[in-house]
Amino acid sequence: MKKSISKNYIYNLSYQLLTLVTPFITTPYISRVLGPDGVGTYSYTTSIVAYFILLASLGIANYAQREIAYHQDEVQAQSRIFYEVVGIRAITVGISLLSYYLIISHCDVEDQVIYWVQAINIIVVLFDISWFFQGLEEFGKIVLRNFVVRILNIAGIFLLIHDASDLLLYIGMMAAMNLLGAVSIWFYLPRYLVRVARAEINPFRNFLVIIQLFLPQIAIQIYTVFDKTMIGILTGSAFENGYYEQAEKIVKIGLMLVTSLGPVMLPRIASAYAHNNTESIHRYIMRSYRFVWMIGLPMMFAMIGLIDTAVPWFFGPGYDKVGLLVKVFSVLLLAIGISNVTGIQYLLAVNRQNALTVSVTAGALVNFALNLVLIPLFMSLGAAIASITAEICVTAVQFWFVRRVFDVSEILLLGRKYLLGGMGMLLVIMLLDNALQPEACILTTAVLGLSGVAVYSLFLLCTRDELFMWGIGKAREKILQRFG
User: Fold this and answer.
1) d(CA 89, CA 91)
2) How far is Cα 344 from Cα 332, in angstroms, rounded to an integer?
3) Is 146 in contact with 186 (CB distance < 8 Å)?
4) How many other β-carbons are positioned within 10 Å of the β-carbon of residue 329?
5) DSSP 26
6) Are 314 and 27 spatial neighbours (Cβ–Cβ below 8 Å)?
7) 166: which DSSP letter?
8) DSSP assignment of 222-273, as one string?
9) CA distance 35 to 31
10) What are the DSSP calls for 403-447, one per residue?
């Protein structure tokens, strides 16, 4: 039985909203308690362990989610795939942990204990089976688990982290919460799995396909994590990494909403592909593009208009550079949002991972080359410029690959209305900011933000935007069902 897209989207969005609210609660506290230096150390060590997490993951999650989606009505096949995936993950995690130990123990690095604590995040990969429930479109179970763990995480930060000396405890707690979240979902498994003969289980059954999916993950890692490593190496400044980390964190909050439809649509499109339903695939993809424009454009303009009033009260003193970085980074909301639809929801779902690999490899090469030139000149700002250029490159290459399937001009034209509404929203925010000339405080940001949201929503309502009206209709339907 097919799960409701709108219901799964609400599940996924509700968690994304909690994820969005969490940094607003914890980041001002952590940025003040740990300071730019502590935040920078956390960012840099996280970027190092991320490479070993990548090795442990090996692109298996994307493969596994897609394969489960292909066999949504075959319990025996689902169980076989599960055992095979867990088996190969045990091997890759073991290899990754051994490599990490050999490298870290033989390197002269500061704060070596921090690196050992960060290793917990590699172990998390083995226990993370969210791909299984995503492939089955059972998002409710994932969301419930994440809600509980996220709330515990927030409570732990305020109860246990009090000054810069608690950096190690903070890193350990973040890793422990990740592990707890991964392990907790295993309790749901017995009702979904059946016995499979050992002779039928072959962890290396589709190893070449897994490697093909691993290649784009390597490229993506280069321009999403390696930039932090390069900032640390080329500038020698934990402060620059701290600025970069905090600016990226703000934009990632927006990206969670812009890409929130992706995890829901991937298994649905993969299932449609398995049944050769090209009409449904086209309808789903075009709706996803429209969603990215509708959410991404106003969020980009909102970040540009609000960040200067938000930085002083949100991060505290010493983070002035974050505002400029956020304005540059805001372009990622559109570039990554569009490439998520084209690359993950479509190319990956329809078994065209080679095209996905080419696109992200092109982006990685552009990012690496620009980082070498721009980071020494502009430090964290140079890395931000390199990142948005790389993501635009990825999007352009993917458009070239799908040009015979989707009309690229039609995709771009879908954003016309939302561009106009977003620009109007930014204009109102700027006029209010200039007219009132308020102090930079949370109330100022809230008033300006709510004014912008009201203007944009009114614009969509007056133009009777199809997707916006559909959302209102769904919300009204749910309210009537519950209270009517």
Assistant:
1) 5
2) 16
3) no
4) 26
5) H
6) yes
7) G
8) HHHTHHHHHHHHHH--HHHHHHHHHHHHHHHHHHHHHTTTHHHHHHHHHHHH
9) 5
10) TTTS-HHHHHHTTHHHHHHHHHHHHHHHHHHHHH---SSHHHHHH
138: nearest Cα among 37, 65, 85, 49? 65
Mean pLDDT (the chain, rounded): 84
Which two three-digit tokens encode residue 162?
């009090």
- Give me the amino acid identity at 46: T
Q: Could you give the CA distance from residue 476 to residue 265 in angstroms, rounded to a whole number? A: 23
Are 240 and 380 spatial neighbours (Cβ–Cβ below 8 Å)? yes
Q: How far apart are CA 274 and CA 66, in angstroms?
A: 10
Q: Which is nearest to 257 in space by CA: 222, 220, 297?
A: 297
Of 90, 154, 153, the C-alpha closest to 122 is 90
For residue 398, give both structure tokens: 């993917």
Residue 167's identity, in one-letter code, is: L
Question: What is the pTM assigned to this prediction?
Answer: 0.72
Instruction: Please give the backbone phi and psi of residue 160, each rounded to the nearest 5 degrees, phi first.
Output: -115, -25
Which of the given ranges, 152-156, 181-185, 252-256, 398-402, has the highest pLDDT on average?
Answer: 398-402
CB 129 within 8 A of CB 165: no
Closest by CA position to 84, among listed 204, 213, 214 = 204
What is the rounded average pLDDT of the residues 431-441? 76
Residue in this structure with the two tokens 């150390």, named with its chain if needed: 41
Q: Would you say 114 and 49 are in contact if contact means Cβ atoms under 8 Å apart? A: no
How is residue 325 written in tokens? 């970085």
Is residue 436 within 8 Å of 459, Cβ to Cβ? no
The mean per-residue pLDDT over the stretch 21-32 comes to 77
CA distances from 13 to 142, 178, 413 (A): 12, 20, 26
* Interval 323-343: pLDDT, tens: 899 999 999 999 999 998 998
- Alpha carbons 133 and 189: distance in angstroms, whole number: 9
Q: How many CB atoms are located within 10 Å of the residue 249 CB?
A: 18
pLDDT at 479 over 70: no
